[in-house]
Amino acid sequence: MILVTPLSAVEVTIRLRQPSHLVTLLSPEHMIETPKGIAAERHLRLAVNDVAEAWAAEVPPAPYHVLQLLEFGRGWNAEAPILVHCWAGISRSMAAAFILLCDRFGPGSEQAIAQQIRVRAPHAFPNPLLVAYADAELGRRGRMVAAAQSIGRGTIVAEGCVVEFPLAFDAP
Q: What is the domain partition of the chain in residue ranges?
């Protein structure tokens, strides 16, 4: 299972759900240390600003961030949850969850995964720059980008909630 949370829910989610791995996507100035309950080698810290255009920030998402995420995700055996978070649990973390799920499920799964994101997280708005880089890296020929765009902006909220994405689900 992939769990997505805002930063404010990380500690309680670790305590209650006991994930084996943690992915943090925060701006460099807000980056956190590895929380209690997570081994340092099982914590991927991606220091990126939440922007949709590379020119719009000092540290925008880049292709190498996606490569790091994919490598980290492929090292997760899924025996315990992986927890993915950003500041609000809306954009960077939802993009990371989408990327991890698309990698696990393989080509052709993009639209079903995007629909599950919308069903489970009405507030989700996966970061389009991360999605575009993952689409290119995974050779999805625009399917990830199109799927993420198809679910729209979502419900506007200041902060998301804890969202669960099982590694098996039926298409909506």
A: 2-162
